[in-house]
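To whoever is covering the structure queue this week,

Two jobs came back overnight. Logging them here so there's a record in the thread.

Job A:
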Amino acid sequence: MELPGLGEHCSERACQQLDFLPLRCDACGEVFCKDHIRYDDHECSSTYKKNVQVPVCPLCNAPVPVQRGEIPDVVVGAHMDKDCKYNPAQQKQRIFTNKCLKPGCKRKEMMKVLCEQCGGNFCIKHRHPLDHDCKGSSRPMSKAGHAALRASQTAFKSMGAIGVPSNGSLQHNRCR
């Protein structure tokens, strides 16, 4: 043999293959070839250290601790009988419960969208004071809000410069 110091033999008694890229089992620490590295393939005696699975209750989705030697199905069944916090009414709870207060709107939102001026609950479409004809306190607006309000009001009042007819094409309204 030219390179006798390279590689290691598989620890599986029936295999003993010389492997140049051996793999070490993380549970028992023995060296195995690629065919015997899985816990089941080499009948690992230390599987309980690494191969831990925790069953989950199918009703409440809570992990159920199982001691070594116990049957998981029996332990989960006992949990469902005694400790399970499953609430069948919880499934019927509605998510979209916040109804829009704008007259005629039937939309509901998952979260409350409150108007800063009147305190009413509105949908996303009617959340701004201009969109729901807010009658709330006339609190001072920010400069940007005031400028946007002034710009929208002047655009509606001064339709003399540019008008949009019903066919959608823009035309100039100046006399020539």
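Job B:
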Amino acid sequence: MLKLVGSLRPAVALFRTSSAAQPSVCLSTGPQQEHRTFYEFRTYNIRPDQNAAFLKLTNEKIHLRTAHSELIGYWSVEYGGLNQVFHIWKYDSYSQRAAVRAALAQDPSWISEYISKALPMLTSQDNEVTYLVPWSQLKSPPQEGGVYELASLQMRPGGPAVWGSTFQASMASRDAPGYGKLLGAFHSEFGLLNRVHALWWFESADHRAEIRHKAHTDARVVAAVRNNVVHLDSQRNQLMLPCPFSPMK
């Protein structure tokens, strides 16, 4: 038995030396957030018979809400969801958002004139906390009018360290040649993880269809999409129209 143990010692030492020689593993899943600003995505599903009434009420009373924090955009979903609105709110920190929610809960005008009337018109609400990806900045549309597309991609687990570069390349392959105007690229922090969103602007739905057809014949776009799709589980696209009170029109 002593001879067997003695014979194993060189092998164990070799194994330890081999393991120690391996490069250290980076535990980061991607570039770290450099600032605290985040964007809350909110989606409301409206009772079909109350859609027009909800939009009218919100148009008249949205100032009660924007008095508390910054609204980036507010849209009605045209394709990819019925009787649905989508809006983006900007916050500098989680403590700021908590303070805003507390103030709204104590705002009698907000409660009596809007939220008490709006909530019965809804069937469900959902929210998601997102950050701009490090290489993206929030941009304004080139002109008022037009339509917006929210492309939501559910990536495979692993984080931006695994799929960040291919996602960026696939977005750049469409944005740089003018196959749409990329206004912002976001990744999720709360909600479904490993999820990224791209907010695009187009002159019209027909304009989107035309340039999307052209993009499908561009070898650079096709190659970038193929490289990214290996990391993709699912994707959902929604075409949205800005509401009259939306800062992004």
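Note for Job B: The chain has a mean pLDDT of 89.

Please reply-all if you pick these up so we don't duplicate work.
Q.
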